[in-house]
Design a protein that fits this description.
The structure is a homotrimer of 371-residue chains.
Chain A: H1 2-10, H2 14-23, H3 28-69, H4 72-83, H5 87-116, E1 120-121, H6 124-149, H7 156-184, H8 190-196, H9 204-210, H10 216-247, H11 252-277, H12 281-310, H13 320-337, E2 341-342, H14 344-363
Antiparallel strand pairs in A: 1-2
Helix pairs in contact in A: 1-3, 2-3, 3-10, 3-11, 4-5, 4-10, 4-12, 5-11, 5-12, 5-13, 5-14, 6-7, 6-12, 6-13, 7-12, 11-12, 13-14
InterPro entries (chains A, B, C): CaH_exchang, CAX-like, NaCa_Exmemb, NCX_ion-bd_dom_sf
Keywords (chains A, B, C): Antiport, Calcium, Calcium transport, Ion transport, Membrane, Transmembrane, Transmembrane helix, Transport
Subcellular location (chains A, B, C): Endomembrane system
């Protein structure tokens, strides 16, 4: 964990470089790449700071903080991109984040973990419950597109209303999921919490004694600073996205589905893979499944409502291929994770699915309108 | 159970009211609403009478009676509506009945049961077998629409033939399912039968001693009377459906998918929820899954064949969104029920799926031709 | 086993008959039917010879031989038909082989086995792993069609490139699957190997003592002879396919999806059913699942690459109904097999699904271009 974190932190050098590239106008491609590289360690530090503060706040408030800030990077990039009018890129990056967590992160974890351990176990009850919640989320997100595709067409204001209604249902389910996991059925999640210890962080038990020692103010400062910097770097990233990806010969669809999610989720990727290689599959699987669930039940509906407020309305009407990609990602992730055991071949299957979908997005001829 | 039944029976007052509304021409909206309210307790009495007669007839003939009359209300409304030419409403109500049983009934049962009991158990083998049968039924019902959508179009006579062939396969499977559950593998279903006791009704064991005491003729009379009255009220309901729902600002699609199934299934809803709150989840889940299976394997194909006889041919070519709704209902119901345990959050997930689909049907712009 | 084999071998009489029918020009329908009947026992002998040689070669090389030649008949018919330009028939027969193995073979096995044994058990771990691999394969094969359907259309060269890329991913996964089952996790498959004994063939253990006795050269001769004869009969079959099926009033789609796979897989059908009736469900299920997996992960991508070499490019752009058929076949096969137990009703469900899909293909109005 420490090595990964150190490695990631060296990328902080790209914060000043990207700023320099912006002010001295080294070209949009360089600004795009350096700001992308700068966001990766910042997202990692936001995650660490969130967890440290959560420990001090205790399981309830802390859990809530984690649940709200767990995908803060995606949320910030999403709002900045929405504000810049890149509605399609935002929608694509939601699809890509779910796909990336379920296939790339879980696949890498199972593959690399499986190279070291013949079979790895994790709690199937939580995996199944997450699978059911994920199924609901995918169904809900699929519905507006399905209404559009199966009718003679639906007017944009109706689509907005439908999307907002779905968003409200999803946020309600998200809040109830938190109530379930933190209050009424928290005992189901105890294994995961105990193993949290394994990644070298302070557990709630230890925290009782050490709380005074933790410099809460310091971590709040780190969180604020990292959040502001991510917001700033997101502006650089979003502002150069269209021109840079054109220069690189990539479609907006590919950028949104593959590139942006990898940038936003790199820190989580590192965590999930690192703990999988320590045979802590419960934690690894719950990071991957939990993160994709959070995107679907919280980030996506919040962005729908945020778009409304920003006057840049974002509906849930996706390109049908994006829906197919999400649906098959959920299908194969459920199929692989529902039995509570994994091996390297299951990792290969997930990675192969990601590769095939990635190739398809690369060749997909629909160039969605940017701006 | 008694309270629910008493409550339902007070609705019988709407039988004379609806008749008065019809003869004194109080307007189609009032006739529609009062006949709908009248059907609910009548369906409940049909169910009770069927079960009482089934007990006297013994497990074999009684099981057959239950299997045939279990969804008699849907069948009667369906035939009356078919005869009135409301083919699309009939098709939509089949979709809505399956959706309603899997999501609304099972969701309410798991939610309300889960509020009282932390975790509830039921037999996963039967849930899985029902899931496989339900998968088959959905696949079969999906096939004619899929042929139509994936081709340059299929001529109506061919669609009729295809639908009839599928209907015959489905009825054959239904008969074999009865043979399985009542003859060759009845031991798998013993838990459910034993728990049947819990809803305060007479079990086969007790029946051996009490059979003489049961006034068989009385129950047959109740069944006949309730059946005839349902048929009459169905005429009132169907005759005013088009005008009344227009007045209420509802599309035919929404009426067929949401309103009609709630009217036809209210009694089953009450049973399933009541027994769930007594922690009899085996019975509750089997009512919900069994009823949806009966709709798909028996009511739907019988209506296809009945339409042929009535000269109002009904094919199995659905609006693709209806198919998506059924498919995702089955998917999430399977996902939630396959592990043989439930909690309140699983109920929430099913209810959320129902809500989202209901919203979508409300906004769906396809107004199918009525009449 | 012996009886089935003897029965099949009597069909060898159709080898000379079909050749006579060809040279004396008895008409394409007769050549088509007799060459089809001739291929069935030849495929059986190829299978037997492959297994006998595999025993001598030992588990590693032998396993590889089995994995490569296991669906040699499909591969030969496929290459001959590709070379004759019948690209759509080849694609349809891939779909039909997967469907046939999952629904017809597994359905017949579970049904006939279930008539004799109340419940039959098999190893669920392998069934689930196969299910996950099958899900991946279907997803991968679905992707090019999905890209085409969800876009304004994709140019043929791009479709070829996309299909070739998917084919390479699939072959890579296939090789890794062999590595998994033969090297790193072979212990998971031990039950299946032990039961192999049951079908009266020589096990590896016995082989150690008997290897000298086995006339290796004889079996290699049988394999070569059968392979060459299958190739020749395939030419007769393919050369008369278009005219004969027209005479019989069948569409090219129905021929490809239903007829050709039954001819190519008859020997495997016989094996799977025979061992199921001896309560060796592990072997029976692994033949059916393994064969369909081999088609998807090996035969299909090899044909894509072979088409490229032959200058008769075959992409993976299917008729959407073919995709639906494969997807629902995998869905219901997974649903039935994932719990590691079967009974006759589960067999009925699979057979009913096959029947419904067969009826649909019979009526499907798309007549794909032959030649």
């Amino acid at each position: 964990m420490l090595n990964t974190k150190t490695l990631l932190s060296t990328l902080l050098i790209f914060v000043p470089i990207s700023i320099a590239a912006h002010f001295f106008e080294w070209g949009s491609t360089i600004v795009f790449i350096t700001s992308a590289l700068a966001i990766i360690p910042l997202a990692g530090w936001m995650g660490t700071a969130t967890e440290e503060i959560a420990v001090v706040l205790g399981p309830n408030l802390g859990g809530l903080l984690n649940a709200t800030f767990g995908n803060a990077t995606e949320l910030i990039i999403g709002i900045v991109a929405l504000n810049a009018g890149l509605v399609d890129v935002v929608k694509s990056s939601l699809v890509g984040s779910i796909m990336g967590n379920l296939l790339l992160v879980m696949g890498l974890s199972m593959f690399l973990g499986g190279l070291r351990f013949k079979e790895q176990q994790f709690q199937p009850v939580i995996a199944r419950l997450n699978a059911s919640a994920m199924n609901l989320a995918v169904i809900a997100i699929l519905v507006p597109t399905a209404v559009d595709v199966t009718s003679i067409g639906i007017q944009e204001p109706t689509m907005q209303t439908l999307s907002a209604a779905v968003a409200i249902v999803l946020i309600t389910v998200y809040i109830l999921t938190l109530l379930f996991s933190m209050k009424t059925h928290s005992y189901l999640y105890d294994v995961g919490v105990a193993e949290n210890d394994a990644d070298g962080q302070i557990t709630p038990e230890e925290a009782g004694h050490e709380a005074e020692k933790v410099n809460l103010k310091l971590w709040i400062g780190v969180l604020l600073l990292a959040t502001l910097t991510v917001a700033f770097e997101s502006e650089l990233l979003v502002g150069t996205l269209e021109e840079a990806t054109n220069n690189l010969g990539l479609t907006a669809l590919f950028t949104g589905v593959i590139l942006v999610p990898i940038i936003g989720n790199a820190a989580e990727h590192a965590t999930a893979v690192t703990v999988a290689m320590k045979d802590k599959m419960d934690l690894s699987v719950s990071v991957a499944l939990g993160s994709s669930l959070q995107i679907a039940l919280f980030v996506a509906p919040v962005l729908v409502l945020a778009g409304w407020i920003l006057g840049k309305p974002m509906d849930l009407n996706f390109n049908p291929f994006e829906l197919i990609a999400v649906a098959v990602s959920v299908l194969i992730a459920n199929s692989v994770s529902s039995d509570g055991r994994s091996d390297w071949l299951e990792g290969v299957l997930l990675l192969a699915a990601y590769t095939v979908l990635g190739i398809a997005f690369y060749f997909h001829p629909i160039i969605e309108g940017i701006g």
